[in-house]
Amino acid sequence: MAEEFNATEYILKSVNTGKTFNDEGWTLNAPDEKDPTLIRAIYQKKQIDVKDASQGIYRFADWLPIHKTLEGSSAPVTYKSKGLANHLGLTNLYITFSGYWPEKGSNFPTCSFKETEAYSVCGRLSSDEKKVLVVASAGNTARAFASVCSDNNIPLLLCVPEDNLEALWFNKPINDCVKLVVTKSGSDYFDAIHLSNLACELENFFAEGGAKNVARRDGMGTTVLSAVNEIGKIPDYYFQAVGSGTGAIAAWEANLRLIEDGRFGNNKMKLMVSQNEPFVILQEAWRADSRSLLPMDDNDARKKVETIIAKVLSNRKPPYPIIGGLYDAMKDAGGDVLTANNEELKEAGKLFEKLEGNDIHPASAVATATLIKAVNDGTVNKDDLIMLNITGGGEEKFKRENDIIYLKPKHVFDISPNIETIKEVLDKLF
Predict the structure, then answer these.
(1) What's residue 3's pLDDT?
(2) What is the secondary structure of 223-252 as a DSSP string?
(3) What 8-state DSSP symbol labels residue 366?
(4) Neighbours of 4 (CB within 10 A)
(5) Strand pairing of 93-97 and 386-390?
(6) Which residues pair with 134 in a beta bridge?
(7) Does a cis peptide bond (omega within 30 degrees of 0) precede residue 318?
(8) What pLDDT sits at residue 1?
(9) 404 φ/ψ angles, rounded to the nearest 5 degrees
């Protein structure tokens, strides 16, 4: 249920031109601008007042573009590593954990930092919104939005590849306001996005917006706010595995706000983002110093997606080239796109659980594996202040402690369905 809340005061700004404008409720693009650009929330409060941890994600409400708060959220938790830090010889390794780890104060029932997006995006929604929110996902985002929308009775259409249905697990039944449709086996995240785009052409549906939604990015940026609130200063390095790179863009934007705040230093964290080999389209573009993504054959891309363990890192159309996107973030902050193969991520996951005491998602294991390699090859030094963003974890622990059920799809679509078929199906569902 939504709670009484004095809406955060902010305006929006085009990253490309710097022009400012008001949020018309669900503004995703800069008005009257031709060049593709992200927009950014500019908050009236320049120094963040972090609330009590009992407020969940909304302890960072000063820098969230929201009109209401919702029940059930948890904020990312940051702690100074001992086990992994000692193993790697690091003196200033901080782990920001978003998942299920009650002993650390982290209570994400979906075990993923995608909840930070969902609680922020749904907090931006108008209370009298009549249309259906549409979200495409490779798994974790769908689980997070399904959980938050179910708990708060928000109509939602989820579009997910059929091969990723194992990610749609919950510890309680999902409210019927949430409808799941899938693209048939053999499809990938890009196909689910295509389906969601077609659904949004219909009258009663609207796109969540992905990276273009300021609420999504600023929700994800709370990982950095958590870290800096705990550490007291901005880190030197930021390690995170990425599919779209939106989390890293969010980290960069949070970093810029923290510099403007004035209390935490004026440095920019080097963005050490990582992918799961052989699906490494971001690394290929970055190493070629290309703003544009390099050409990729659709069938070749799908085969590579099938190969990788960390399926959530498989976005074929990430917000890398767009003005204000990942390319610009990394050009401004510095950093690199690193990679880990399936064996390296499995070993890193085992090591984290042994040394830190909790299981982590494959994507988080990719980030951990690349940190290990960065230490071993001298990219980072032992006294550098490092933030390792563990974007999901505690799932095995959560499943041991809870009975699990799976959300079943209402319809299986072909990889390239036509709009008439989609309309016919969705008219019956809603």
Answers:
(1) 55
(2) HHHHHHHHHSS--SEEEEE-SSSHHHHHHH
(3) H
(4) 6
(5) parallel
(6) 157, 207
(7) no
(8) 47
(9) -110, 135
Radius of gyration in angstroms for the set of CA atoms belonging to the chain, rounded to a whole number: 20
Token pair listed for 363: 């994507």
Instruction: List, for residues 149-172, the tens digit of each pLDDT value.
Output: 999 999 999 999 999 899 999 999
CA distances to 97, 112, 153, 380, 384 from 92, rounded to whole Å, are 16, 24, 43, 11, 6
Query: Please, are residues 308 and 278 in contact by the beta-carbon 8 Å criterion?
Result: yes
Distances (CA, A) of 223 to 114, 116, 240, 255: 11, 9, 11, 11
Structure tokens at 76: 């990312």
Looking only at the bridges linking them, the beta strands covering 237-241 and 205-207 are: unpaired
Which residue ranges form the domains of the chain, and what is each CATH number?
Answer: 77-108+215-399 (3.40.50.1100)
CB 353 within 8 A of CB 393: no
HSE-CB for 261 with a 13 A CA cutoff: 24
Q: Which segments in the chain show pLDDT lower than 70?
A: 1-5
Helices (H), 53-139: 83-88, 114-124
Nearest to 181 by CA among 202, 195, 201, 197: 195
